[in-house]
Amino acid sequence: MEISGSTAFYAGLSTIQTGQNRVDQASGQIANNSVERSVTSQSSDAQVNRLRSVDRSQQSDLASNMVEMAQGKFQVEAGVKVAKASDEMLGTLIDTFA
Fold first, then answer.
1. 3-state SS assignment for residue 98
2. Average pLDDT, whole number, for the chain?
3. Contacts (Cβ under 8 Å, ≥6 apart) of 76
4. CB count, 10 Å around CB of 36?
5. What is the largest CA-CA distance in the chain?
């Protein structure tokens, strides 16, 4: 039992880390797109049509990145639940056999 409890705990921690990395990457992409958008918004009127298509693309990227952030959040929450359940199980086993 100790090995599977330990394995579940580390699986939970790994899931938390993976979810956090997902959130970090998506938020970094959002920040990069925001910087690019402010730079391109200072362009001349001759580039307005090109900017409209870029703006649509950036909106799509923003939506995708927001979805990635939400998925990362849920992944972290799931990892916390797994680690917590494993910790509680180990505590119960210790109390039972102590």
1. coil
2. 82
3. 15, 16, 19, 20, 23
4. 13
5. 78
Q: If you write DSSP's letter for every residue of 24-90 in order, what string do you get?
A: HHHHHHHHHHHHHHHHHTTS-GGGHHHHHHHHHHHHHHHHHHHHHHHHHHHHHHHHHHHHHHHHHHH
What tens digit of pLDDT does each residue of 8-30 get?
999 999 999 999 999 999 999 99
Residue type, 48: V
In angstroms, rounded to a whole number, what is the distance separating the alpha carbons of residues 26 and 64? 9
Q: At what angle do helices 2-40 and 48-97 cross, to 10 degrees?
A: 160
CB 13 within 8 A of CB 81: no
- At residue 9, the 3 state secondary structure works out as helix
Amino acid type, 42: Q
